[in-house]
Structure prediction request, 710 residues.
Amino acid sequence: MTSFQPLPHATIPAEDEALRGEVKAFLAETLAGMPPEKRARSWMGSDPAFSRALGRRGWLGLSLPKRYGGAERGFFARFVIAEELLAAGAPVAAHWITDRQSGPLILRYGTEAQRAFYLPKISAGEIFFCIGMSEPNSGSDLASVRTRAEPLAGGGYRLNGRKIWTSNAAICHYMIALVRTSGTTEDRHKGLSQVIVDLKQPGISIRPIRDLSGDAHFAEVTFDDVILPPDALIGEEGAGWEQVNAELAFERSGPERILSSMVLVDTWLAWLKSLPSPSSDDRVLVGRLAAHLAALRALSIGVTARLVAGDSPVVHAALVKDLGTTYEQMIPRAISAAIAADPGANPPDALMRTLAYTVSMAPSFSLRGGTREILRGMIARGIGLR
Amino acid sequence: MTDTLIADTADRLMAEVVTPAAVRGLTDRAAAAPVWSRLAESGFLDALVAEAHGGAGLSAAETLPILLAAGRHALPLPLAATMAGRAAIAAAGEAVPEGMIALAASARSEAGDLVAQVPAGEFADAVLVPSEGGAMLLAAGMASLEPTGEGTVCRMRWRGANGPAIPGFDPLRAGARIEAAEMAGAMEAMFATTLRYANDRSQFGKPIGKFQAVQQQLAVMTELVHGARAAADLAALAPDAMEAVATAKITIGEAAAEVVAIAHAVHGAIGMTEELDLHLLSDKLRRGRLRYGSERYWADRLGAAVFTAPDATLLDFVRGRMFS
Prediction:
């Protein structure tokens, strides 16, 4: 893409759209009474029992083949379910990354034995994966990772190093880590591989890190002479960089890059609707929020259609994520200004707590999954400037 | 005709006829006549007219490439308005007038006169003005013209206005959708021009497009242009839905302001010259934002619709009104 290549307009197939009603009904029952400030945690809030309940209903592993316990439904079925889970603020963090990228990654790059072992458990919501990418000295510069899996003479690897900002490591069973299997950090993209690490093995310590809202979803994971079996390697040795980038296209374009502030929007709207009549300013803001949501949704559906077609729409995914997170960050800013436009306003406490949480977490929306600056660099490469 | 065929035909025609020099010369009806006759020969004018009435019976979505091409070439004439107007007039069983048809954004009575704000009214042979339950078709020759002198709208005044009723056609909604689509096209052209300039212009010994600060701005422009096209698609697929048209006018209008700012920032001083064609596009986008209601007007209407809708969530509203 060296010039403007629009995403073709796409629509969600009717059979996938048909899943929505059932999911809505399940969520209305399951989440009844959960306060908005909890639901605002969106895909950062975790509840393994909730994730297993989704697995029992067949709503995990939607894109995986039936022979691995999946639903063989594809990306649009996942899109519909993801939208409803996120709009409702369901506590999806335990399975989110596993379902979104680990499962598809294992399906695409795993051996038959790896697929047969992991995928049915993923579809059932029995095992959860975290992603070991960032390290204390490797953030945006991911190719500089130092965690090392030294090949052993008799096969397998010895793993040493440290991963950080690993979401939900404490409740996960496995990590898919990007590690160096040969060469040095000078070799950059060469010599990197992905390995599956069973987090129960000796030599692994997991230290939770509290975020500024008091939650502890982050962790630092240290590997001290951890012995990995030969089949810990996923995909090809040395192809870790390409594999990680393909994985990130799944991560970057979905509804979770648009809907992170939606619980706040709906909580605010519910309050406004309870008042005699909205101000003109509030109406205008609500209209803008609806318009941008619609345009972003059209783009996200367009990227999903490209995933369905088997493409790896790296640049389109990056631009949807940057636009989407800009929208997610605009929401708490604009709603703060709207709520306090009248110093005598008396908004419900739960709305104010939801706002406080969303305002405080908003900066992370454009950090996780690739910072704004990195994404814009990728787009610049896509239009031929690099 | 397929989408690509329409797009190619429209692009070729506009490139030949709607040149920057021609656009600069399009100041009044007389100057517009030769350009218009070429556009009229294209066969596009009756593209939206139902086959039963002798047209091609295409949909708004199928003819979107023509609007995008008009935008890319900064066409100031009401080609798309004429297409929409002819289809509506034919559907109402009225005689379709010759020449250009403009769509009025508003109409009010003033001391017995009908006064309408008409984008591109200075070129028009006929005007569809909003009236009870739809529109009324008026001859432009019967009106006195009061152009603003800056090209956004022409105030037109009819004494004792009377013309055929075109029920169910909302000139404001159609105008907003068309304007937004042409703006999306203009933004594409602005992006292409700016990208080319960033590759051609060297400073500090290398093309300015190699500098990260410039790259980040062009990346933002890329995002905005993609978003604009997606919104134009949504409105073209649901031209009768106020919500989809509002979405296009709001998001494209907001993006246009930013796209123009980035294009000029990257071009530097040369972008501020009369000689460069860039300002034809900036001016098209300036007019577009002001015509048929700004972002604020449509956001107010869209917001009001959210407040009266029974939907439990904003996502439900958006899905139900624009994606079903």
Q: What stands out?
A: Chain B touches chain A through 56 residues (CB under 8 Å).
